[in-house]
């Protein structure tokens, strides 16, 4: 098991409820979850936190060139 890090919020083995996700992610820099935790509540949290799609999610776009 990974060591506890105060900057991390992790969800594993079962789907968390939306309120638990919000509570545990407040003030955290990183989020980690496994397939079992990828639930409708997790998808809702992610949609609320990241309402705009990223450059990497846009169809037909390549990664930006590196300098």
Characterization of this structure:
The chain has 67 residues and is an alpha+beta fold. It has a domain at 10-49. Helices cover 27% and strands 12% of the residues. The protein contains 2 helices and 2 strands; from the N terminus they run βαβα. The chain has a two-stranded parallel sheet with strand order 1-2. Helix 1 links the parallel strand 1 (8-11) and strand 2 (30-33). The N and C termini lie far apart (37 Å). The relative contact order is 0.19. The model has no long low-confidence stretch (mean pLDDT 86).
What does this entry show, briefly?
This protein is of the alpha+beta class.
**Structural shape:** globular
Counted by DSSP, the helix tally is 2
- Structural class by secondary-structure content: alpha+beta
Mean pLDDT: 86
The radius of gyration is: 14 Å
Could you tell me the number of beta strands? 2
Sheet having the most strands: 2 strands, parallel
The ordered string of helix (H) and strand (E) elements is EHEH
Our estimate of the beta-strand percent is 5-15%
Main β-sheet, spatial strand arrangement: 1-2
- Roughly how much helix do the residues carry, as a percent range? 25-40%
Distance between the termini: 37 Å
Show unreliable segments. Answer: none
């Amino acid at each position: 098991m990974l060591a506890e890090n105060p900057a991390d919020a992790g969800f594993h083995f079962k789907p968390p409820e939306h309120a638990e996700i919000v509570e545990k992610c407040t003030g955290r820099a990183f989020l980690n979850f496994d397939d079992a935790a990828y639930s409708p509540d997790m998808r809702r949290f992610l949609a609320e936190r990241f309402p705009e799609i990223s450059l990497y999610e846009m169809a037909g776009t390549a990664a930006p060139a590196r300098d």
